[in-house]
Design brief:
single chain; Pnp Oxidase, Chain A; 7-stranded antiparallel beta sheet; 7 helices
């Protein structure tokens, strides 16, 4: 990863994990890879997700708990002609934020911890409330029948790609096209491009 794209500030990484609704869980057993999208929630330094006790990913994790987990927040698609006048497709790209975590998955057994995870997940995905707290005994059977998994990170990498590596001329050209197209995501991309340009002292 180019150093100019790398984000190391823990608060920035956590903010991204807290804002993205789902990530991709990658597992492997007997040289057979398997990847699946999952809703998740970050609590402190760990990531948690849930699923049926007997589904494929849980069976794999019982045999090989090593996992890779990634999230992506997409920003503007950058057409090739946004940054180049050469007529080639190569400059076409997409700006984004991403986090990749390598770690070990551990099954959560405690009802209390499971309830905490479900409360945190609901607060993330349904912040308006409107449901009984998970301390309520009405959830007992559902909690017992559901697997909750904690990913303990060994390595966390974060990348923000917003044209930080581009020459000023190409950077300004992209800004101009994004201003002209002016979608909501383009407006958000423009803010990130300018912010990271300043932060990197360019």
């Amino acid at each position: 990863m180019k150093q100019i794209f790398e984000i190391k500030e823990k608060e920035t990484i956590n903010a991204l994990l807290d804002s993205v609704e789902y990530g991709t869980l990658a597992v492997s057993y007997n040289n057979e890879p398997y990847a699946v999208p999952v809703n998740f929630v970050r609590i402190d330094e760990a990531v948690y997700f849930h699923g049926a006790l007997s589904n494929k990913k849980m069976k794999i994790l019982e045999k090989n708990p090593k996992v890779s987990f990634s999230v992506v927040q997409n920003y503007s698609l950058i057409a090739s002609f946004f940054s180049s006048t050469e007529g080639l497709a190569c400059p076409a790209t997409q700006f984004f934020k991403s986090v990749s975590i390598d770690g070990v998955a551990k099954m959560v057994e405690s009802r209390e911890v499971k309830a905490m995870v479900f409360e945190a997940l609901m607060a993330k995905l349904q912040p308006e409330g409107g449901y009984k707290p998970f301390s309520n005994e009405a959830y007992d059977k559902a909690i017992q029948a559901t697997a909750v998994v904690k990913i303990v990170p060994h390595t966390t990498r974060c990348k923000f790609k917003f044209g930080q590596h581009l020459t000023q001329e190409r950077f300004e050209r992209i800004l101009s096209y994004l201003k002209e197209r002016d979608t909501k995501i383009d407006q958000e991309t423009l803010k990130m491009m300018k912010q990271l340009r300043v932060e990197n002292g360019i």
